[in-house]
Predict the 3D structure of the following.
Amino acid sequence: MRGIKICMLLFFILLFKIRGQYLPVYSNYLQNPIIINPAEAGSVGAMSVALTSRIQWAGVSNSPQSHMLSMHSPVSRFFATGAIVGFDKFGPLNTTQFLFPFSYSCKIKKIKLSGGIQAGLVNLNNADNVVLIQEADPSFNNMIQQNILNAGGGLNVSNERFFAGFSVPAFFSWQKSKGIEVNFSEKQWFLYGGWKFNFSKYEFSPSLYLKNTTFYGSGFDINLMINYNKLISAGVSYRNNDAIAGIVNFKFNKQLLLGYTYDYLLSNVRTISSGSHEIFIRYDFLYLLNDLNVKKFK
């Protein structure tokens, strides 16, 4: 049974060619939007550290795994910066990225406008875990281990009731066609937006996320999140022709947020996989007191 799963996975890989992907797929990105738009740096209003780990296609050997650690913080009234470290593994392909976002924001009345750029390094390595039955296999004559510089940018507009953003995560594209074909960030862009409205202690937030990537092509996510008393949020996300995700987030206090996402697969991969799992944790270095007055401590 395990051998059948491996063979079917290899079939899907060969069907779409083998590509190194610059940005992984996440479902709970709205809790940490800096991973899709550098203009979101500093959006929390304090230093924010987040870790996201995702297992794609659980139950399938060598299925994709993604792990991303991000940190960002305002450094002045208008400027913010941060760092993102990501690691992706798909079969023999390992991708490690280091990104450094920088944003500028200002307010026009109650509307916040932000623009951001990011630059960094992407390391691709697919030579470590390949064992060749035929040593002279021409398809693997050129094992790839490359460091690639990249840069991207984005825009964001928001207030207490709505948010919208547009980003191009990489301005450059790079392709290598010898042996294994690898594409980085060619014609990638993301457009997203949502609305927030309250009913008693509940906050409803529908949103839409449009994307165009080399590997996945064009697609969209439709999301609906419901937040109760600013402590617990739950929702559902539909990714066209791919998955329906259930999302739960729990806020322990003003600083600590923990989330879990389960993707029920709609594609043919569901015949060999039980779904995808994603865990998210974020800590914001906020003050415990809303009104910090030094006179109270004299």
Summary: Residues 103 and 242 are 32 Å apart (CA to CA).
